[in-house]
Each structure stands twice: as structure tokens, then as C-alpha cells.
Amino acid sequence: MAQMISTMPMVDATPAVSAIMASKLPQSACLDTPASGITVVSRQHVRPDAASAMADLTLSVSDLPMLSCHYIQKGLFFPAPDLPMSSLVSLLVSSLSRALAAVPALAGRLVTLPDDRIVIRCNDAGVDFLHAVAPGLSLDDFLVPDADVPTKLTKDLFPMDRTVSYEGHRRPLTSFQVTVLRDGAVFIGIVANHAVVDGTSFWHFFNTWAAICRGDSPRPLDFRRNFFGDSTAVLRFPGGVGPAVTFDADAPLRERVFHFSADAIREMKAIANRRPGGGAHDAEVYGKMAHDPKNPESRGEISSFQSLCAQIWLAVTRARKRLAPDATTTFRMAVNCRHRLLPAISPAYFGNAIQSAVTTATVSELARHDLRWAAGKLNASLAAYGDGAIRRAAAAWQAKPGCFPLGNPDGSVITMGSSNRFPMYEGNDFGWGRALAVRSGRANKFDGKMSAFPGRAGDGSVDIEVCLPPETMAALLRDAEFMQTARGMLGATWSRDTPRS
């Protein structure tokens, strides 16, 4: 076990209930007792352990569109630590205080300046840290094979549920919750303002906190907000009334995590990269996969993840029974722009550096063609999404600023977020064992919203969190072709037989 720090944190000295007494509290003393049985027993306000010298950080053209999005909610289940819960809470709070000193942007607030620019003021205002207990729940209640994610439970693993990022003017830019289950397992959840971080930056901070907690030195981050240089574009919100999310957050959804084994993904990739059987249209599509001088980033090979996404695109479109044959289906994929720009920006750039690559096809086209064809379409779109495409998209936004329209208004869109390359398991050992599973809250979820996670084994397997209306999910589960590729552990990536370290 790595050495864990034990320095005293910079916290407010008035937690509502002492963390030391958390496990002995009567029900009446609890701060919050939702129906899930996850009870908040302690709330502390944590500040960086060193004063910030960082100047205001102006939100970039990639940050501003995210002001209408919910805060990101992601977290990890961990095995039971070999220390008392009071010591665990103290350890996490003290290391968080040091992590915030290393990443002061997350301890600040959003401020709108007189010229309507919105900045992150690194004023050490601090964050909230909640300690919760779930004496009636264990890992088996959350990680259920062959079942939907129990969203009525997972939603209470996170604070600031469904908070819109513009609220960072008045509320902390990050909040944290550690939840201790009946079997001693621990869930560590982070909620982060989406106008301040994208997924890459989110997991950079998670790694930073874990590294400090286990006694290691964190990697330095790049806080310069010069992603596209200076921009005069602003988003104006008269009267300080911020935007609302652009989708119906209360629409009924079912959520599952499908596990795709490394073998299944290799098989899909092999199918996607076979030579086409002929036909003018196939030749046109696959010709774009070659080393086209107009697309210098193309490697001529369809990737494993593109192959998996193609399988999902085909299957979900089949499951959407109400779509007309001539309806246009859209596959939106979050693109990390850091390495696609010329020159590339630092992988440690801390902020939003994402755009959305769009691929379209009609329902009838997907029905007539196979995995190889759909994967070729995705490959061509992503290969073309280089420096020029990124800068054109940024210029178009600056000409007409607006918030990013998350959602699925016509019922034919798939939006793939997160990444199976994010270090969710690697680098997030807080000092008592490797994480067991990733889960998210209710933030930014709608029909067709999907998130990619790496498989816990680190062998190239991938977990896809899928959100669909009940009837569409039921149809997807009846799709024999899709279910054969997802024949691993459905609904969970952990079992009692999984090694815990």
C-alpha cells in the first residue's frame, strides 16, 4: 500500500455533524435522508491549503458553450479501506485541500465582468465535501449483472444533482462526496462545472487528488486559456438569469452499462477493416479511409472504438422502431482537440478542448449496409476532423455565439461522450486499492446519450453506458446481433470473484 498523507486540511471548522461520529448517528441527526437510504452525515467546506496567485481565467470559445450543461458527475467504487472511517474522511479532506492548491481554478467561482466576459476567479472560495453512509446497501445493489443501472440509488452518490454550469457564479465549481456502504466499500464522487473542465481535465484532477492522497507528486497542468488565442466573442445573459439545459431532464429513461470484451472488439475491428465486396458507393466511402492527402490525419485503418460505435449505431437505429426509412440518423462523437490542432496543445491543458464530430446516414442506408460500411462513415468523419475543421467550427461559433444544444429533439441522434482512454482506473488509487467500477449521476442524460469507459481489466475491453427510452432499450435487449457482441457482463464490470487490487 502506498504511503498516505495525513496533513491537516484547510476546512471550515463547523461541519454539521462530526465525521468521527457518522456511523453512530441516529436517523434524526442526519443532514439528508433520501429514499435511496444514502444519508449525508457530514458536510465540510474545504479551501486550498495555500493561497492562489493565479489571475482570472477567461472562459474560452470551447468553455462558454458548456454553460447550459449540467455539472459533470463521475465517480468510482473502491474496496473497503484498512482504516477507520473517521481517518478516511480526514485523509480525503486533507489531500483534497492540497489538490485544490495545485488546481486553484476548481476552488474559485465564475464572475461576469462589466464587458460581459465570463471568467474563473481563482479566489479560494472553496468547495463542499460530503460524507455519506448507506447502511442498507452494498456493492451488489449497485453493480447488478444483466440489469439496468439502479439510477434511483446512483443519483444520491453525487451532490449538486442536475446543477447547470452557469450556477458556478453562485455555487462551488466542484463538490465531492464519499459514500460508505454496508460492506465497507467506498464510492468517491466528483461533481465539476462543465464550463471549467471537459472529461480530460476532470480525470486529470481525479488523478491529481489520488496521487496526493497516496503520497505521490501530481503531474503539472497547463492553465493557460489560449486554446484559440484571444477572442472577443461573449455570451450575454441579461439580468444574470442563466441558461437552462436544452433537453427534457425528466423524460423516462433506462440506463445500462454494456461490457464489450477485448475479443469481441477485435472481431468487430477485423470485420470493419475487411476489403469491401464491391459497389460504387462502398468504394467511395472506403476510399476516404486511405491516406488521402486532404485528410493527413487518416491512418487508413478503422479503429477499434470506431468499429464498436458503428455496431452501436446500427443496433440503436434498429431499436428505434418509430423512425421512418428516410429519416436522417446522426452519430455525434465528442472529439478531443488537443492533439488534432496544429500545433498541438498540451495534453495537460486544463479546460474544455472538445468539439462534436457529426456523421449522418438515413435509416434505410444503415439497414441496407453492414458494420463495415457504418464504421467507414465514422472513420471518414473523424479523419477529416483536423486542425482546419476545428478552427472553422470555432470561427462559426464566434460569429454566432450560443450554448451547446445537448439533446435528441427528433429521436434519431446518438451522442457519444467520455472516452475509453481516460485514466479512470489507472492513476486513481487513493492508497488502499484499485477502483472496482465507474458510475455516473443523472447529469446530461437523454435519449441516445452514451458514455465510454475503459474496461477495468485494462485489456482493451470497453464499457458503454447507454441511456434510452424504455421501449427502445427493450428492443435493443432483444437484438440478438447486438447482444452477442455485448455478451460479457451486462450491467456491471465487477463481481465477487473480481480481484480487488
From TrEMBL:
Cite the entry's keywords alphabetically.
Answer: Transferase
Q: Could you give a GO molecular-function term held by this entry?
A: acyltransferase activity, transferring groups other than amino-acyl groups
What is the name of the protein in this document?
Answer: Acetyltransferase
User: SUPFAM superfamilies under this entry?
Assistant: CoA-dependent acyltransferases
